[in-house]
Amino acid sequence: MAEGGPRPSRAERIFVGLNAAAIVALLAVMCVVVGWNVGLRYLTGTSLSWADEVARYTMIWMCFVGAGLALREGAHVALTNFQTALPLPAARALRGVVLVLLMFFFAVMIWMGWDYMTRARFQLSAALRLKMFWVYAAMPVGFALLVVHLALIARAYLRDGLEAEEAEVPR
């Protein structure tokens, strides 16, 4: 978001803070488990049979839960050359179309993730014997978070992003 824009509400700041805290917690779990496993392997020649699985599933959850935070920061891949070549009203309209397409895509992915998650509800992981339902739940949860994040930044995305780009790029 451009500086000087409207300040996020308290609820939005709490939502973003909780989302970021979840990422930190998942990263901490992954680091501890992988570090512990490496230490055990080095010191004792044995390793934890479930460590790779925990690290893999934690990484999956981190990616999906963190995607919304990356979206807020503009950290996803974006092609902006076309929109910056357009006059401001056309560029704003293009951003509106992109916004609608993203919301539609996120909604479809929630539905597909939910379907995939429920189909895998009886499958168990190899080492942990964890229901794969919980692993695959990362997809609908992550895309639902993307919908919320996009809804919260939509106005700034349409307004501030283009004004900032127009100030940076000579036409």
Automatic annotation (TrEMBL):
One GO term describing the cellular component: plasma membrane
Protein topology in the membrane: Multi-pass membrane protein
Subcellular location: Cell inner membrane
GO biological process: C4-dicarboxylate transport
Pfam families: DctQ (PF04290)
A Gene Ontology molecular function term of the record: transmembrane transporter activity
Coiled coil: none
Tripartite ATP-independent periplasmic transporters DctQ component domain span: 30-151
Principal subcellular localization: membrane
InterPro entries according to UniProt: DctQ (IPR055348), TRAP_DctQ (IPR007387)
Keyword annotations of the record: Cell inner membrane, Cell membrane, Membrane, Transmembrane, Transmembrane helix, Transport
Top-level taxon in the UniProt lineage: Bacteria
Transmembrane stretches, start-end: 14-35, 55-72, 93-114, 134-154
Record carries keyword Transit peptide: no
PANTHER family (UniProt xref): 2,3-DIKETO-L-GULONATE TRAP TRANSPORTER SMALL PERMEASE PROTEIN YIAM (PTHR35011)
Function: Part of the tripartite ATP-independent periplasmic (TRAP) transport system.
Similarity section: Belongs to the TRAP transporter small permease family.
Subunit structure: The complex comprises the extracytoplasmic solute receptor protein and the two transmembrane proteins.
Protein name per its UniProtKB record: TRAP transporter small permease protein
Lineage, broadest ranks: Bacteria, Pseudomonadati, Pseudomonadota, Alphaproteobacteria, Rhodobacterales
